[in-house]
């Protein structure tokens, strides 16, 4: 399925002629495992308020294509609608929007740094309501340069928001180049541990490891600490000429590039949209 | 003579505090978040009565707004509370994306607005806040004029579905509206009828507008006074009905002329019923330290200032 999701991402962004290819490909394995194997959710009974369901917030909203793909592929909306990405009147806005009423989305994102706070709000509401379900959020590593992330991290640790699992996509790249050159984030494990988080690490492009670590994270919930997963990924994973290149952060493939990319991502039994 | 009278002066932020208690009792979904100013913003009674529904976020306003948005998605009715400047300018992007664009039912309660914050000076005197909030699609902007109205407005805001900016103030001001007057969001309250000039005021300037109308009456000028307690959506029917009668309009606000009540009224009238217009407010300047009354006098946001603008308006052809 992750291969199909990658095919979707390439075809959607190619058709839209704009969009964020690299991060979408890098997170395809994680998003697929999360939505197909880990989240307690059901597209048929989707509720905006998330009551009785696990809830996911995409904080790095620019990788919306991969989210749209897994949402469609898990039944939130018709798969053919993926072809409308970024087009006028589409529910699949360039960055996630709730104003266009796309099922599966609860909060707009795109301006970075807000999703962890949103997730905390949902997590606190779940605690108030006695709902044992969990809240997940995904962030980019470059996004950690936003100050609000650290406000949220401080809050979640201090207030023991232990029904929250936040994941950082550590692909080491952002628009202006390597994260370590733009703003060296230092020892993220030590930073989050000092903020009273439980910290796990995983290879985000190994589906078996992703599922194991997500289950481990789930098991660590309810013990007084929020859980952080530092997820190493390869930006552009799955397409050799897109791998680990900052220029693929926000670039759409042209006709030849899309064709070359799809040749490396064999057709699956799920079928293209 | 001013037909309204008052027995005591009270602050609108305390009106909010009382209104929040009523809302909390009526609606279990009501929660409150504060950023280290719990007492100043009058959330302390709520925090004491409902500790499980109160969230101390610390000095982290961006986090507070976005947490509130997440809670709203989950079905809560969150009120965030910090000074007007930190409720708007500091968190504009959070309000725009997490609250308004996401249609989250968050109530941004903002006391300590305007010049009457006083001695703290311009850093704490939000004079651009209503303009910023008014520009965001789907945002409702409410600004009660006294304690009683603040109580009722808070209750109405809690019952209202959708994001609201609820502006209040720090100093005590005459408390003259009826305690049992149910607040209607989007309604302009005609306090006094008159045929010569329409005075539309908001917030702390409503009482001085009534005093000014009394002073004008002594000079033979009949002013109609409207308390425009909701800036957005503007009660355009109320404005139009009055202006059709008087043919002249003066707006009064403790806010920049850019973006505030005057702008909103002018925006509507210039396209629908252009009439001579004047505005009382702060004209593209920052505030400064001083007592609240000194500042209102210095910037002309007082009875003589309103009377002078009204007379200038009447002198125009």
How much is the radius of gyration of chain B in Å?
19 Å
Q: List the domain count of chain A as a whole number.
A: 1
| Count of discrete alpha- or pi-helical segments spanning 4 or more residues of chain B | 12
CATH superfamily of chain A: Thiamin diphosphate (ThDP)-binding fold, Pyr/PP domains
CATH topology of the largest domain in chain B: Rossmann fold
Tally of alpha and pi helices of chain A: 10
SSE series of chain A: HHHEHHEHEEEHHEHEH
Percent in strands of chain A: 5-15%
Through-space gap between termini of chain A: 13 Å
Would you write up a description of this structure?
- The complex is a heterodimer of chains A (273) and B (317).
- Chain A has one domain: Rossmann fold.
- Chain A contains ten helices and seven strands.
- Chain A has 273 residues and is an alpha/beta fold.
- Helix content of chain A is 38%, strand content 12%.
- Helices cover 39% and strands 19% of the residues of chain B.
- In chain B, β13 (249-256), α10 (261-272) and β14 form a beta-alpha-beta unit.
- By secondary structure, chain B is of the alpha/beta class.
- The model of chain B has no long low-confidence stretch (mean pLDDT 97).
- Chain B has a seven-stranded mixed β-sheet with strand order 3-2-4-5-7-6-12, sandwiched between helices.
- Classes of the chains: A alpha/beta (273), B alpha/beta (317).
- At the A-B interface, α5 and α6 of A face α3 and α5 of B.
Concise account of the structure shown:
The complex is a heterodimer of chains A (273) and B (317). Chain A has helices at 2-16, 21-26, 28-38, 64-73, 115-129, 147-158, 179-183, 188-194, 207-220, 255-263, and strands at residues 55-58, 135-140, 164-170, 173-174, 177-178, 198-203, 227-232.
Features:
heterodimer, A: 273 residues, alpha/beta, Rossmann fold, five-stranded parallel beta sheet, two-stranded antiparallel ribbon, 10 helices, B: alpha/beta, five-stranded mixed beta sheet, 14 strands, globular
